[in-house]
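Changelog-linked ticket: guanosine-5'-diphosphate-rhamnose example.
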Amino acid sequence: MGKTALITGITGQDGAYLAELLLHKGYTVVGAERRASTRNRARLDELGITDEIIFTDFDLADQGNMVRALEKHAPDEVYNLAAQSFVALSFEQPVMTGDITGVGVARLLEAIRTVNPETRFYQASTSEMFGKVQAVPQNETTPFYPRSPYGVAKLYGHWMTVNYRESYDMYACSGILFNHESPLRGVEFVTRKITLAVARIKHGLQRELRLGNLDAKRDWGYAKEYVAGMHAMLQQAAPEDFVLATGETHTVEEFVEAAFEAAGLEWRDFVVIDPAFVRPAEVDLLLGDPSKAKAKLGWTPQTSFRELVALMVEADLERVARPLSYA
Ligand code: NDP
Ligand code: GDR
């Protein structure tokens, strides 16, 4: 019998790529999605996998529906990728972010402990927990210092995952993932905002791109490779936490420059700095050390920064050439 995996956040960037990977590996994939006025399965449609997924109603705000979903589908593995994941919004909606991104993890761990504590659990932790960084590069032992309500909420979810592992001997692990991007990245995040703008400018649909802080440094990898690391973390003999990162850092400005260059444009002709996109507190420098994942999971990032920028620009140029297909 093949395994069953339940993925929360299936409609997001990582959920879509992870579902594709697990289907390819022969898993039954249960897609836990929240109710919205319109279904948000565009990414799954784009990968052509929607019909292969068993969907279940699921909201991180509601404990009862988690218990029922776990009882009904009896997954071997649960990947908790759902979250209010946009750092900027977390400053506007800190309490909701805390409830979904933080306390939601406790609800899900409790539901698993109640229904079947043998279920393996993956928590989507983040480099945002390092925030005001205490060391460069950052690894699994670097102290945390979150700089946003999102980072604080994720830190709670992270420690709850560690705590359930230590208290109840559950196979629960936390992947501390640095930024990872793709053509399926949400358009509010800076990389996709940039590549979509480049494509629209190239096609004469947009005249300028308004951005905030161009000096922040991020360790950007390719999302498709990162979901393979999530799966590998749940296949070990014993649960542990792992950093996934490229080990390279670049400024937002470097991303902007590379993206415009990939389309034959000069970024300074189009970019406008707008204080509306500057955050109350910033994470200035993220640079991950993925040595542990390399040694124990055999995981290594393959796509370079330039390749990532180019593949995102190319995908958006193609989408924009097909009107109404890129929202
Ligand atoms: P996305 O923002 O693309 O996806 C978030 C998902 O969470 C969506 O499917 C969304 O559903 C779902 N969701 C939001 N609120 C709820 C809720 N109340 N109940 C159930 N589902 C909900 O995120 P990514 O795919 O980029 O990231 C996946 C996870 O990894 C997130 O937890 C993120 O915080 C974390 N992470 C991401 C990194 C990155 O660089 N991408 C790096 C490190 C961590 P809907 O479609 O309905 O909005
Ligand atoms: P981040 O990603 O906050 O690192 O969180 P985001 O792409 O939103 O910001 C990256 C950096 O770019 C700067 N920036 C802007 N950001 C946005 N979104 N829009 C702008 O116009 C803009 N101008 C400059 C930001 O200030 C920041 O420094 C992402 C999310 O996926 C989290 O869920 C995840 O945990 C972390 O990555 C790792």
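Closing comment: Example verified and attached. The chain has two domains: 4-180+221-244, 185-218+249-285+303-321. The mean pLDDT is 97.
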